[in-house]
Specification:
conserved putative lor/sdh protein from methanococcus maripaludis s2 fold, 29% helix, single chain, 9-stranded antiparallel beta sheet
């Protein structure tokens, strides 16, 4: 009996087999129908255009807009100033540091002046001696003039007195020039700022030996600031003197209106670019070296544009919804520049297409 029971379990009836086969076929048909009718074709939503009749739409416009080119550069001083030494001497003191604002005539560096002070004293002594000799010779000249009138001295003696007097006049003049030169040399020991400006760098420290012509302090004139732009040579024909520029500068990206004042005619062979300069207004607290971005007009071009609120972003995809033959189609687009409340369309749409501007899409969220 046990053996018969095992045979019945191992060998199902023909009816059970046919039921299982029918169930499998039915399941396959259901899955096929779901895959066929439940999937939406790419780019086409289930809703028709009539269902979106209350949502705002807009037309893809073809517009003529100005072409703007952007270049980068930096703020520079129009008049860089180097305060240099005019004598050979030891640096006694440096009165300023980088970043200090200085006034015209303010002391920047003090040099050792012991030697030139001694020269001044020596020149002043020589002048005193020359003046004393002049006084004696002048008195002799007057006395001999009176004696000559009374024939008390010979003409030769009078001529000698006159020559001595005239010689002392020249000696006094030379002594005075020597004093003036010594005092000028003494003034060189105090290096002063030639402009109202800002210290860029102090090039020496106390104890250094300053040589004639050596830069001691570097400054820039904060009343003469300009922007210096690096323009690729491909744009050479589009830039000219007098052209309007819009310059953005500073962390707050202030926009400054100016005009090109200078175009350097020779390009840098390494970077294939040339320098364009334009003045910047005073009183804007700009400093040399600050990064700038400038733009200028370079003609016109035709573009396509749509409202900003017609654009939807899903991950890395940028799409719009447009009405095509009675249905709403989702289409991927490539966008360009932003222009106020509109945005440039580089690819994906044609002029005259109608897009839905309500950026909250219907579809999966509404059907859940």
């Amino acid at each position: 009996m046990t053996m018969n029971l095992r045979k019945e379990i191992r060998q199902p009836s023909a009816r059970a087999v046919w039921v299982a086969i029918a169930g499998a076929v039915l399941l396959a048909v259901i899955v096929a129908e779901i895959l066929r009718y439940g999937k939406i074709a790419p780019g086409v939503l289930a809703e028709t255009a009539a269902q979106f009749s209350n949502e705002p739409t807009a037309i893809v416009l073809a517009q003529i807009v100005p072409i703007r080119r952007e270049v980068i550069g930096s703020v520079q001083s129009s008049v860089p100033v180097d305060a240099s030494s005019r004598m050979s001497a030891t640096v006694d003191a440096v009165m300023v540091r980088a970043g200090d604002h200085v006034r015209r005539g303010q002391i920047l560096v003090e040099l050792d002046s012991a030697d030139v002070r001694a020269q001044v004293a020596q020149a002043q002594g020589a002048l005193a001696a020359a003046q004393a000799e002049f006084t004696r010779a002048a008195a002799d000249y007057e006395r001999y003039s009176a004696l000559l009138k009374r024939s008390a001295v010979t003409q030769s003696e009078f001529d000698s007195a006159r020559s001595a007097y005239q010689s002392t006049i020249g000696n006094v003049a030379r002594a005075r020039a020597a004093v003036k030169a010594a005092r000028a040399a003494l003034s060189y020991a105090t290096v002063r700022s030639p402009v109202d400006g800002v210290v860029v760098a102090r090039m020496v420290e106390p104890g250094d030996i300053a040589m004639p012509g050596e830069v001691l302090v570097r400054l820039y004139d904060n009343h003469a600031i300009r922007v210096e732009l690096t323009v690729p040579d491909a744009l050479a024909d589009q830039v000219s003197v007098g052209m309007p520029l819009q310059v953005e500068v500073g962390s707050e990206r202030r926009t400054i209106e100016t005009r090109v004042s200078e175009v350097v005619p020779a390009a840098d062979p390494a970077s294939r670019s040339f320098i364009v300069r334009a003045p910047l207004p005073r009183g804007m607290r700009l400093r040399p070296g600050m990064f700038t971005r400038a733009s200028f007009g370079a003609g016109q071009e035709k573009i396509l544009s749509i409202p900003r609120d017609a654009v939807q972003s899903v991950g890395q995809l940028t799409t719009v919804r447009l009405i095509v033959r009675g249905v709403v189609e989702v289409r991927q687009v490539a966008l360009g520049r932003a222009m106020d409340d509109r945005v440039e369309v580089l690819a994906g749409l044609n002029a005259g297409d109608r897009v839905i501007t309500d950026s909250s899409p219907r579809g999966s969220n509404d059907r859940q």
